[in-house]
């Protein structure tokens, strides 16, 4: 997927000259340097709608659009530091093939993705500092076979959504900022990862009306790979994000536990399974503001490759929510579930170029408001969101 070109060669030459000069002054010889530029351009032409809402006037009738599907540009480098250590850097930014797709003000460059610097220790693991994919987001893709885990053809929405019952969408599929991380090497197929998002938004001493806030967050992940099995478990807690009631002055805890499994059959078909349990709480909620919301989601999926052809699909279920009010009474979470299905086909021209077409649907119950995880249409309560599309993906 990575191919050296004139740009990368020139950049490598410049970096070697600069580093050689610097090390000449220090008297220390530089180790081998590796530098690569890679990227993805992915766009789809789509037809979407969200109809049959509880209030018909809120239906979103069918419309066409061109969507950017997680296109990106990445610069990666590494240097041998000696004694089993390697310096690493990764600078990945989102690229907008469709300039108006939610990031018009950013121009071509959409938003930072995984951006970090670190040191890898041979046979131990890597320490990283920066912005990166934490364990819940990493695990959410276990049962999802869409390229980049994005677009209407992904099936993570049943795991990541809360049926519109929280003021702000849960953030478990959002990258960690201000992060210190450790990702271990594999020991007999078992590896671990730990991410700590620093509490840079910690407030001064709290009051009755404005509690003391401490927004540090923690994410843990385990993976075991053996033969055809790939098993993953993640646990994540995000503090004081105000997700449940949209508050900025309440002590809140957002927790997620997620299990993922992939199994590869002898013919190469890959089966996927994901299960998620989410808990959003607000210790300072009063009256009919929610103090607690819990829900779970499940996704099953499969992918089969034959020659240049790939077929994949998935089916997911998002549960009704269980919720409580700040006054101690239970709130009504009935009929807030949903089902999600997707089927897609890909034709691989070569290692770089791919054509894809898909059909997908999110069917909500009467009081549900689940949406597609990526590229959502924002359905009204009770609506079903449908989408068909086709596109091209070029990776280098």
Instruction: Write down the Rg.
Output: 23 Å
The count of strands amounts to 19
CATH topological fold name: Porin
- The secondary-structure class comes to mainly beta
Name the CATH architecture: Beta Barrel
Relative helix content: under 10%
Q: Beta-strand percentage?
A: over 45%
Structural commentary:
This protein has 396 residues and is mainly beta. It has a single domain (42-70, 110-395), classed as Porin (Beta Barrel), CATH 2.40.160. 8% of the residues lie in helices and 51% in strands. The chain has three helices and 19 strands. The protein has helices at 6-26, 135-140, 157-160; strands at residues 33-51, 60-68, 72-82, 85-95, 109-121, 125-132, 176-184, 190-197, 217-226, 229-239, 252-264, 270-282, 290-306, 309-318, 322-325, 330-331, 338-348, 353-364, 384-395. Strands 1-3-4-5-6-7-8-9-10-11-12-13-14-17-18-19 form a 16-stranded antiparallel β-barrel. Residues 1-27 have low confidence and may be disordered.
Summarize this structure as a short list of keywords or feature phrases:
Porin; mainly beta; 16-stranded antiparallel barrel; 51% strand; single chain; disordered N terminus; 396 residues
What can be said about this structure in brief?
With 396 residues, the protein is mainly beta.
Helix and strand arrangement:
Elements: H1 6-26, E1 33-51, E2 60-68, E3 72-82, E4 85-95, E5 109-121, E6 125-132, H2 135-140, H3 157-160, E7 176-184, E8 190-197, E9 217-226, E10 229-239, E11 252-264, E12 270-282, E13 290-306, E14 309-318, E15 322-325, E16 330-331, E17 338-348, E18 353-364, E19 384-395
Antiparallel strand pairs: 1-2, 1-3, 1-19, 3-4, 4-5, 5-6, 6-7, 7-8, 8-9, 9-10, 10-11, 11-12, 12-13, 13-14, 13-15, 14-17, 15-16, 17-18, 18-19
